[in-house]
Amino acid sequence: MKSPARILVLLACAFLLFSAGDDPSHYVVGDRAEDFSLRNVDGSMVSFSDYTSAKGFILVFTCNHCPYAQLYERRIIELHNKYSSKGYPVIAINPNDPKIVPEDSFDEMVKRAKSKRYPFAYLFDSTQTVYPLFGANRTPHAFVLDKNLVIRYIGAIDDNPETPAAVKRRYVENAVESLLRDERPDPDFTRAIGCTIKRKRK
Questions:
Q1: What pTM did the predictor assign?
Q2: pLDDT at position 201, please?
Q3: What is the pLDDT, as a whole number, of residue 202?
Q4: Taking a C-beta distance cutoff of 8 angstroms, is the pair 179, 56 a contact?
Q5: DSSP, res 26
Q6: What number of CA atoms fall less than 13 Å from residue 64's CA on the CB side?
Q7: 35, 49 Cβ separation under 8 angstroms
Q8: Lower CB density within 10 Å: C or N end of the chain?
Q9: Which of 102, 98, 101, 118 is closest to 110 using CA atoms?
Q10: Class of domain 25-196
């Protein structure tokens, strides 16, 4: 017969297990995101609502300095080039504190966007109020939203950061293609791999 103390421990573990995936502090798949207004590298303020003809969005939290973000840079550009004409533009957001990583300052964002010829908006979450809502914790961290701003996919862009030619599963592409067919993405969640987001020091 199990002791009362052991039963309490097991119940506590079970509670943590089942509640771990239900964090009310940030969005999960199926939640509707709030719009935002962030500064773009061209100086304008950009919101989801500016994209009046969009069928959805490929939202990527990324940055300048992270080696993983750099590895995915060309692939993010290709995603925009492939899907913006189909109604799913890329919106990239840099969430990092430039006091911790000077390479991620707004001025450096402007330089990189120009040198790499970004065809998408590259926004600065200067107050770090947007990325926590999405639960982003890595760069890059991808989110696919439908036209109603309902989050339909969260996670990695694909399954091979280091070698694009060796990619077997293109998670973001799969999610967008599924939505274009009015189907549910499968998988709709994967683990993002990249550098941790640099949070402001208190």
A1: 0.88
A2: 87
A3: 73
A4: yes
A5: S
A6: 24
A7: yes
A8: C
A9: 118
A10: alpha beta
End-to-end CA distance of the chain: 49
The pLDDT assigned to 24 comes to 59
171 near 157, Cβ under 8 Å? yes
Question: Two tokens at 93?
Answer: 């957001």
What is the rounded CA–CA span in Å between residue 157 and residue 191? 10
For residues 26 and 22, what is the distance between their CA atoms, to the nearest angstrom? Answer: 9
User: Identity (one letter) of the amino acid at 170?
Assistant: R
Q: Residue 187, preceding bond cis, omega within 30 degrees?
A: yes
Distance, CA of 42 to CA of 63 (rounded, Å):
16
Domain ranges of the chain: 25-196
Give the pLDDT score at 8. Answer: 39
Length of the chain: 202
